[in-house]
Specification:
Length: 206
C-alpha cells in the first residue's frame, strides 16, 4: 500500500506551477525592424525624404516599391536583404533608382557622388564629410563595429554628426568614431559614404 504522506504531497509541485501568472511566461513581442537588416533600403528612403519632404506618403510607398524591384534586378536575394544586409554597390544602385524615380514623379533634380576614396586619416574623413554636408545635401554612411548599420547624416559640427536614422539614432560623437580602431565603438569606412544633393544637373555625379 503506498505511503499516505507520498500521496498527499504528490500534487503540490504541479499545483504551484499552475498558480504562476500567465503573463510571466510571455515574452515581449518583436517589433518590425528588430530582426531584419533592411537599414540599407531605409537609409535611401530617409535620405530622399529628408531632401524632398513634399514627396508625401503615397509617393514614398511608390519609392519603396521601386527600391524593392531594384533589389530583384540586382539579383540580391531576400535572405541577403532581410537577414544579412546589403553592400555599398547595391546601396549605390538603390540611390540611382531613387534619383530616376524622383525625376519621374516630381521632376526634381538630384545628384549623387561617392566621398573621395583618398581619405586615409580620420581627421581627413571628418573634414571631407563635413564639407560634403554643407548646403542642401545628406550623406548615406555605412557604420561597423558595435552597430553594423546604414544611416543618413544631415549635419556635422566639429564634434558630432546629426542623423536622420531608421533605428532612432540621433547623433554620433566624434570621440566614439574612427576609421579602423576596434577599441572605438563605431568605424566609418570612407568607401561606404554616398553624398546626395538636391539640385544640380539631373543624373549628375558631383
Amino acid at each position: 500500500m503506498p505511503d499516505q504522506n507520498e500521496v498527499a504531497s504528490g500534487p503540490v509541485p504541479r499545483a504551484r506551477v499552475l498558480r504562476i501568472p500567465v503573463a510571466e511566461k510571455i515574452l515581449a513581442p518583436f517589433n518590425q525592424g528588430d530582426l531584419d537588416s533592411l537599414c540599407g533600403v531605409y537609409c535611401v528612403m530617409n535620405a530622399v525624404r529628408f531632401l524632398f519632404p513634399e514627396l508625401g506618403r503615397e509617393k514614398s510607398i511608390g519609392l519603396f516599391q521601386v527600391l524593392s524591384e531594384n533589389l530583384t534586378t540586382n539579383r540580391v536575394t531576400a535572405h541577403e536583404t532581410v537577414g544579412l544586409g546589403i553592400e555599398i554597390p547595391t546601396v549605390y544602385a538603390l540611390v540611382e533608382a531613387a534619383c530616376d524615380y524622383l525625376q519621374e514623379v516630381l521632376e526634381a533634380p538630384i545628384s549623387m557622388a561617392m566621398l573621395t576614396s583618398k581619405v586615409r586619416r580620420f581627421d581627413d574623413l571628418w573634414a571631407a564629410l563635413r564639407e560634403g554636408l554643407r548646403g542642401n545635401q545628406v550623406a548615406i554612411i555605412g557604420l561597423s563595429g558595435r552597430h553594423d548599420h546604414w544611416t543618413v547624416a544631415y549635419r556635422m559640427t566639429a564634434r558630432t554628426i546629426r542623423l536622420f536614422d531608421s533605428d532612432s539614432m540621433k547623433v554620433l560623437q566624434r570621440a566614439r568614431c574612427s576609421l579602423r580602431d576596434p577599441r572605438v565603438p563605431y568605424q566609418i569606412d570612407p568607401d561606404e559614404i554616398i553624398l546626395i544633393r538636391r539640385g544640380g544637373v539631373v543624373g549628375s555625379r558631383f
